[in-house]
Queue: 2 jobs
Job 1
Amino acid sequence: MASQKILEVENLSVDIPVSAGMLHPVRGIGFSVSRGETLCIVGESGCGKSLTSLSIMGLLPKIARRRADRMDFLGRDIRNLRERDMARLRGGSMSMIFQEPMTSLNPAYAVGNQLAEVYLRHVGRNRMTARDRAVFLLEKVGISSAGSRLGQYPHQLSGGQRQRVMIAMALMCGPELIIADEPTTALDVTIQAQILHLLAELQREFRMGMILITHDLGIVARVADKVQVMYAGKTVEEGPCETVFDAPMHPYTQGLLRCIPVPGRTRRGERLGSVPGIVPNLVGELSGCMFRNRCDYATEACADMPDEPTRMGDGHAYTCLRAPEEVLGEGRAAEAL
Amino acid sequence: MTEAAAPALETVDVTCVFHVSQGFLRGSKPLRAVNGVSLKIPRGQVVGLVGESGCGKSTMANILLGLQKPNSGDVRYSGDSAAGFSRREIARRIQPIFQDPYSSLNPTKTIESIVFQPLRIHNVGEPSEWSVRVGEMLDVVGLPRRVASSYPSQLSGGQRQRVAIARALIMRPEVVICDEPTSALDVSVQSQILNLLQDLKEELGLTYLLISHNLAVVQHMADRVAVMYLGRIVEEADSDTLFNDPRHPYTRALLGSVLTPDPRLGVPDTHLGAVFPNPVDPPPGCSFHPRCPECMEICRSEPPRPASDGGHRIECHLYGGAGAPGTATQ
């Protein structure tokens, strides 16, 4: 796989002042996406995954403060871009697919106009080419009789069709990077599989980089090249998809994987694993491992552990005090049972 | 049929029709949300009901809860027809747990008054005992007793769902209808709620109807599974049979769409057409035929008759002829 990096982010933090003090929803995370690569960011609600995507797009609420050591998009520093230049990138060479296709399409405009608008704004002024491109992409995303759909309004489409229109819209200007924030959460399982299949196919065809944000480990396993597990605003584990699923190292990743029923692996009525406790409050000064109050292996040292991740080679890294031998030895013992 | 053998809950050929307006001066068309469904929920078992949105799952739940009167057919509680029961009597036997604990709890009431509301409505026991009962119930669902004086906004999603479960169980119902009980929750909380539902079933001898689109959850919980499509149950069997030997092409497509966390498998291609048909204007013949990969000539004109093979019931022309095994078994 070509290692040409589309996006490189280092030490990204987001701070939001709230009445109780300073909220730290994202606390120093870094990642990179190459051409044709899919990065999945997983985590539960409140772990900062959506704010991460919004801060890349420059769509954070005004009150939030963003800091980063590095944010390079196609080799260009986008940290201090003016809003006008950022708006030129957004929808053009980086685009986003949001969770709710019901709320992210404008109900007052026909689908065709909404698709053409993106193109006219970023690429060219010719309405006919914009229309042709819209029809081409609607057919590409599997909408039948695309030409006649252009005059339809969002309420005339089903949920799956709307999400397809959103995908077509994201592709209108031939983006280099697509950020999809929970693109299938509101959809039925059958439609979910179709949409993910479509995204994977289009991504391969157009050699785009993709950041997929989700809480569904099934989706992650099926589409990701790289996985990044977030907890309380930090990356707790990252690595190639197969490695992370085969040998999860962080107790949180392990806990998440034990929580989901897997046909064929968990027996009916058997108790599922769980991660007891709740997500910590991220207001004020924070130190040490934030997972320690829910962790089975927590020791006193966890309260002021450094941020330095343990690296395992081939890009697999996790932030935990437990030594690799300790974790792996246990896995083997469990397998032998 | 003896009293003991009667299922806790049963529907016999239930049909529910809504009239959908087609616009100004264009009159209305009938929408058969539930179209001749017979479903048995045996005592002490978990029956899963799966299907896409718009297939009539939630209308079924409303009919079973007595919130929606079916146009024809009968609902039977322990063998007795629903016609003889009032709404309150039904509510004593059957309670719901809904999907979204953010909207199913009244935000202006304390947890205690939410949980004892059913006792008040049904005039059970002395009001002085209510808070004791609430305390016991909170223990049962694993909430600390101090939340009794909190408001829903002070609780997390998982805690709220526990409150909803406490409210459903305080009347000691026989049957609990769980309509997508975990789909609004995070993964780690989902497993806690599923474990809790499982424990409560054992402890209190409950019967569940589990409505969900998450087939992994259904497989984990249910003893028996019914697959619904456009108001009909197209396949029904015990859980092992259905998941190991799905027959109906729709069931196979549904199972094929389940994304297990296996990084070596890509995203499946379900070969299902994208378009869920408009339920106001269902396709002729078998209502699944426009999306079916194994559609035959007969499917376009004639609706399939239910065929059954032991406890395995299927409505599909592939299996129509006197229990003949289909050509397309996996």
Note: Chain A has a mean pLDDT of 88.
Job 2
Amino acid sequence: MSEAKAAIDQETVERVSDVSGQNYKYGFVSDVDADKAPIGLNEDIVRFISAKKNEPSWLLEWRLDAYERWLTMDEPDWAHVEYPKINYQDLCYYSAPKSMEDGPKSLDEVDPELLRTYEKLGIPLVEQEVLAGVRKVAVDAVFDSVSVGTTFREELAKVGVIFCSFSDAVSEHPEIVKKYLGSVVPKSDNYFTALNSAVFSDGSFVYIPPGVKCPMELSTYFRINEPNTGQFERTLVIADKGAYVSYLEGCTAPMRDENQLHAAVVELVALEDAEIKYSTVQNWYPGNSDGVGGIYNFVTKRGDCREDRAHISWTQVETGSAVTWKYPSCILRGDDTVGEFYSIAISNNLQQVDSGTKMIHLGRNTSSRIISKGISAGRSSNVYRGQVSVHPKAKNARNFTQCDSLLIGDKCAAHTVPYIESRAPSATLEHEATTSKISDDQLFYCRQRGLDPEEAVALIVNGFCRDVLQHLPMEFAVEAQKLVGISLEGSVG
Amino acid sequence: MTGLLNIENLHASVGGSKILKGLSLNVGAGEVHAIMGPNGSGKSTLSYVLSGREGYEATEGSASLDGNDLLVLSPEERAYVGMFLAFQYPLEIPGVTNMTFLKTALNAIRRGRGEQELDAAQFLRLIREKAKSLGMSDEMLKRPLNVGFSGGEKKRNEVLQMAVLEPRLAILDETDSGLDIDALKTVSEGVNAMRNADRSFVVITHYQRLLDYIKPDFVHVMARGRIVDSGGPELALKLEKSGYADYLETADA
């Protein structure tokens, strides 16, 4: 046997063991004592959460009002997804790692087990590690329901940037929270926002003062650890006049056989001449190849370009979750405002994705751009659902939409559902859509050049997504490219 | 028989129909063999069977490259042991730059051969040098693979890939088709520059013209799934005059 042949055999053995093992690299469970609310949901639970967080009475009232509204609402069923009915009384609505009971005063006080968890996730929570990196990234990490530490807080404070957990913002900057909370996504916007508003536990808060360009990327990592725990985080980002911020969130969860609910709300407010870039790399556990387990990701994200020349840009790479239901949107309220949505949504095995965006043009000369890349493999279903709406006063509004779908194999589905409504005759709206398949010819060509089938698919898909990947902050683009490969493993025979 | 490429009594079917019917061919290290023949004689099928394309099934006989039984290997494993096919119609991959594709391919093959992968700087040096020798600009390396390339550019790009991947055996499947005379010269020069005592070529072509530039050691005539005649370069000249009619009758017999 030649050396080359021996190397091939070794390679084959390794690949086979790679594939037969679990592909979800983030599927570990951390052994941390948790302080949990009793199972179920009622007014007392809402009070319990509020009390746990020492909240002011206005916020408790706000939560209770949301809870009352939620009781009168029905779970939406218009999305092209199917899942067993969720029993909201079977869930736990608050879980804090026990060592957090008194709240860590600094990173040194954080449970080392938690820090090790973040290390496994590749989050540079310890500041020194980040400092050793090429670029500074400030990180807030949310573990189940509680924020465990925000790096670079002091350095950010020097330029007036506030980046902290939502709870800290409530106690330290109540006037800002009170002014903006629910101002973009009203409590009763939909079933899940009402639920989130009642029971949200923590999340991240960002305020960039007028004229300040945030000196580093801000980043939040979310992780659901406890079983039967819903995660309901709340993110509020405000860019004051002329401010700029780039924000990234990443998400993972351990592998569990039962489904876990994630119903977050993200609100962005961009004032005059402000710009917010919001990127998401979502890698929640998608369930196994038979569709058992995985996260239900029912998230409402919305940005408000509240004043003239504001600019909000959403970039998302969605590879995880069993069921995804989310439409990061922009309200283009001010004149000359710009909204952008760049999305890569990958579904494999039995994953179901119903995702897209809404661009609501209210102001004059507003423009929006939508680039959506949907990749379906396995027996998954992938829907792009988008709305472009131009109101009568939105003179000279412009939208460009491009929706591309890529199919891998012949058992998956891709749908494109664009809603376009224009009530301004001066509007210019363009919509382009394509559907393509990875051809056997392309695959063979790559394999003849030495790429194994999975590497070939990853390369072709990354090429397909290139327009979107370019919009991610550079260090995350590399991570996202790898994720694209991992999430499509096993999609070709 | 010992050569770099040994094909013995190879039979192969595509979609149930028998295309190769007992083909034998030995290519020694460092040799250039031309395979000529009429349309439908199975020339492209031979290239696909040897490179392992799905649906091209060998039903009998054997084929080995450098002592490795090709027929049990996946396409990428065949690439590791030194097989390279220059495609008649190179594929386009939108969004993947020429450079990225080449780096991925080279490192996949190096990994497959148990060699160290090249880092970005090492690769850049290598690719610049190879591209320069083929008269290809940096701009062309940054374009998406074969997207919007002219016929000539695509073929030149195939030769660039070959130069980077350094195979033991290169099969050129009608590399001359669709090329004007200048492109034909450039491509041929690229191939000739790669000829050495260890590397062999199988050149599939309809026309003698290409063989003016890539001088073969042996010429074979293929008809109805078999090699029906073999000789030196003079055989190609003869074919150019008399055509394939004689062989079609022979093969039928």
Note: Residues 8 and 85 of chain B are 20 Å apart (CA to CA).
